[in-house]
Task: structure prediction
Amino acid sequence: MDPFDLGPHAGFIIACYFITISVVAGLIAWVVLDRRQLNKALNELEEQGIKRARGNQAQS
Amino acid sequence: MAIWDYANPTRFMRLADRILPWLIGICVIAFAIGLYKSFFMAPEDYQQGDTVRIMFIHVPAAWLAMMCYSVMALSSIGTLVWKHPLADVSAKCAALIGAAFTFISLVTGSLWGKPMWGTYWVWDARLTSVLVLFIMYLGLMALWRTMEDPIKAGKAAAVLTLVGALNLPIIKFSVDWWNTLHQPASVMRLDGPTIHPDMLVPLLVMAFAFSVLFFVLHLRAMQNEVLRRRVRTMRQKAAASARPAAATATTQPAE
Result:
């Protein structure tokens, strides 16, 4: 069994894995970039002297 | 500790921060084992040849598509019945992830269908009901975006989510109730799986990896949503404190 020989329908198999990896990478990028943006917005607001209600601690 | 103790977003954020590194580690290891088994251990199918390897991503993605919606439906009950403050956060954050997994299952199914069935798409019950699920996800995401107040949006979306949950049994039993090109269930059956263990084990490992991936993304997205609401509240607070000053400034020249 040669895992690198995917037979006559290799294109379909590779396309499936490529699309799945791309979508999952997109989801990971979404949560990471969103977090970065939100942390930036929180820091900017705190620098302006706006405090959070009930004095919650900042999250990383 | 009761579930109500995690109704406090700060406590939830702290707990999620503690759990996430472990979940990420488990997810990476599970995918490494699953992909190794899918490509190096699982044999070719006697009819489908190597295209059976599409199953190792298509089936977990399809399961996750339904699981995400089930999580949203349970969260919606939490929003409407118990008014749990994190329930609508959970429902909102599961929508995009569910839409992504549904998209993966539709596209990989279509790419698997072409060499096996001779067509990318047929309007049969299973494929159509999954397409309806995908449209439901997009509709719910649009609904959340149309309302500025997240609490009001959460309640409206919760009602729609529960109505849409009727589609879940239709998806599951569509292959039994109607004639379809799609094969009937071969893993979750009362009489046990009909797949050989050489293919079943990689499939279950991949399903586990996908499930852990969902929990990682969902927890992280929920943390982001809690932070987004904090930013929103702080901006409202800033605007409210700036308003009297602005009003004084605009009335002064007239005096």
About this structure: Chain A touches chain B through 37 residues (CB under 8 Å). The first helix of chain A runs from residue 10 to 47. The CA atoms of residues 33 and 58 of chain A lie 18 Å apart.
